[in-house]
Amino acid sequence: MRKKASAGQDIHPENVGEPAAAGSVSSGASGIDETVPVTVPAEEAEARKRVAELEAELSVQKEQLDKLRDELLRRAADFENFRKVKEREAMAAGTKALENTIRELLPFVDDIKRVLSNAPRILEITAEAKPYVEGVELLKRNFDNWLAGKGVTEIRSIGMKLDVEYHEAISMIEIPDTEPETIVEEYQTGYLLGERVIRHARVIVAG
């Protein structure tokens, strides 16, 4: 069966073109089918895929880096705390050792002070004792300088009000016109190491 064309020419079925497929382009202007597929080049598709893979890998690496950084900061803080604790422990141990050493030396200091307190009477008896007294005085000065260099100071007592944080009253006597608990005599000198009492002063107070 034949169909008549508008211009009077015969149109055979085999001459009728098929509709253009989806995703293709027809020139249409010349009346000739020139179908061109619209596709993304393989190289570009592969590049996009690779970029996506790299971005995913970068995200994973960044997450791991953040975890490592947090772990490093935590360990650094732990180490700093550990170091400070050890420094305090070492300082406390050193202070304790120094305190014990000074306590052991204080009786010798007491003996030297007692010898010097009797020096005038000894010198009245014999002038030949003067070099020995001077030697004891030099020894006391050396002890005093060593104690001062370690931060040791004497506790003030005579004329002070009794303070149980620094003084130990061993006796009480009645003294006219003197306020009660005023220290009137020091039996044994007390000492401080810094602000810490390493030996209380043993004193006699007014009643």
What's the structural blueprint in terms of helices and strands?
Blueprint: E1 3-4, E2 10-11, E3 24-25, E4 36-37, H1 42-117, H2 119-125, H3 130-149, E5 152-154, E6 167-173, E7 183-188, E8 191-193, E9 196-199, E10 201-206
Parallel strand pairs: 6-10
Antiparallel strand pairs: 1-2, 3-4, 5-8, 7-10, 8-9
CATH topology of the domain at 151-207: Nucleotide Exchange Factor Grpe, Chain A, domain 2
Number of helices: 3
The main sheet orders its strands as: 5-8-9
β-strand number: 10
Q: Which series of helices and strands comes N to C?
A: EEEEHHHEEEEEE
Name of the CATH architecture of the domain at 151-207: Roll
**Which structural category do the helix and sheet elements fall into?**
alpha+beta
Q: Tell me the name of the CATH homologous superfamily of the domain at 151-207.
A: Head domain of nucleotide exchange factor GrpE
Terminal Cα separation, in Å? 149 Å
Overall pLDDT: 82
- From the spread of the alpha carbons, the general shape counts as elongated
Helix content: 40-55%
Strand content: 15-25%
Rg, rounded, reads 52 Å
In CATH, what is the class of the domain at 151-207? Mainly Beta
Low confidence ranges: 1-30
